[in-house]
């Protein structure tokens, strides 16, 4: 009895191409691409996703093992596509950091910073809290399943072996950054109104009572009222963010 293993080299090449796309995406995904996540866990996750996604999209890869150059070019294309997909999800999450920065400024806590575990750099404390809460909710609400679905459907948008449409990628990046900034401002809108009204009130109070130390009264009061508003609107904020995140992923899925 003879076992035909002639397909193994082609299968190995296809597996490495798919792994390149998925690993590049995983390295940037929120919750998995953080600097404090061990590389082994990232690679193991990418390997598992490759074994899940590849059988569904095996026919998309047309590999010729007789020439090395096309394989190298295809590998680079796959890595670029993975980076685009992962960066889109990462930029989407940055809306929470934008909202947190605006909220902190309006509450007078813009100087309170800590290391952002999702970025590995300094960030305002409220922004860090919102980012961590957002990542937690993405997994708690099974939104990460949409990420896997978008990854599988990406083969219909970015077919292996075809040139990456630079115009579409640039448009996607522009829309992602603009939408993240827009949603960040929308999430922090109640605090923008609060900051405007509160500071106008302090200005009027300072004119009416010049001898009063307005700053020493206003600073703790601003923090107190700000946290009360934060507690009231937090649920609505995160619900809006989850809807926005799911909308971005649905845009990556061809209808």
Low-confidence stretches: none
Give the count of helical stretches: 8
Largest sheet: 2 strands, antiparallel
Helix content: over 70%
Q: What amount of the residues lies in strands?
A: under 5%
Shape: elongated
Order of strands across the main sheet: 1-2
Radius of gyration in whole Å, from Cα?
24 Å
Instruction: Tell me the domain tally.
Output: 1
Mean pLDDT: 82
The secondary structure category is: mainly alpha
Question: How far is the first residue's CA from the last residue's CA?
Answer: 47 Å
What is the ordering of alpha helices and beta strands?
Answer: HHHEEHHHHH
Give a count of the beta strands, DSSP E runs of length 2 or more: 2
List the helices and strands and how they pair.
Elements: H1 8-26, H2 39-53, H3 68-107, E1 113-116, E2 121-124, H4 125-140, H5 144-157, H6 166-187, H7 189-208, H8 214-251
Antiparallel strand pairs: 1-2
Helix pairs in contact: 1-2, 1-3, 3-4, 3-6, 3-7, 3-8, 7-8
Structure explained in plain terms:
This protein has 255 residues and is mainly alpha-helical. It has one domain. Helices cover 72% and strands 3% of the residues. It has eight helices and two strands. It has helices spanning 8-26, 39-53, 68-107, 125-140, 144-157, 166-187, 189-208, 214-251, and strands spanning 113-116, 121-124. Strands 1-2 form a two-stranded antiparallel sheet. A hairpin with a 4-residue loop joins strand 1 and strand 2. Helix 3 (68-107) packs parallel to helix 6 and helix 3 (68-107) packs antiparallel against helix 8. The longest helix is centred in the middle third of the chain and has 40 residues, at 68-107. The chain is elongated. The mean pLDDT is 82.
């Amino acid at each position: 009895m003879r076992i035909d293993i002639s397909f193994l080299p082609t299968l190995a090449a296809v597996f490495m191409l798919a792994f390149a796309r998925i690993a590049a995406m995983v390295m940037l995904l929120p919750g998995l691409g953080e600097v404090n996540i061990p590389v082994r866990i990232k690679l193991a996750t990418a390997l598992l996703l490759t074994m899940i996604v590849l059988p569904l999209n095996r026919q998309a890869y047309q590999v010729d093992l007789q020439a090395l150059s096309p394989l190298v070019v295809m590998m680079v294309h796959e890595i670029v596509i993975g980076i685009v997909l992962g960066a889109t999800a990462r930029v989407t999450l940055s809306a929470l950091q934008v909202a947190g920065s605006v909220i902190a400024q309006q509450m007078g806590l813009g100087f309170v910073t800590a290391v952002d575990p999702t970025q590995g750099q300094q960030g305002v404390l409220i922004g860090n809290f919102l980012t961590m809460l957002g990542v937690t909710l993405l997994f708690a609400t099974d939104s990460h399943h949409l990420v896997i679905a978008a990854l599988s459907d990406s083969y219909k948008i970015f077919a292996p072996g075809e040139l990456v449409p630079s115009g579409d990628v640039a448009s996607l990046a522009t829309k992602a950054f603009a939408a993240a900034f827009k949603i960040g401002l929308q999430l922090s809108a109640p605090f923008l109104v609060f900051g405007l009204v509160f500071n106008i009130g302090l200005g009027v109070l300072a004119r009416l009572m010049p001898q009063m130390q307005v700053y020493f009264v206003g600073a703790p009061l601003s923090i107190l009222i700000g946290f009360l508003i934060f507690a009231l609107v937090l649920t609505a904020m995160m619900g809006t963010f989850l809807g926005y995140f799911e909308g971005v992923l649905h845009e990556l899925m061809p209808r």
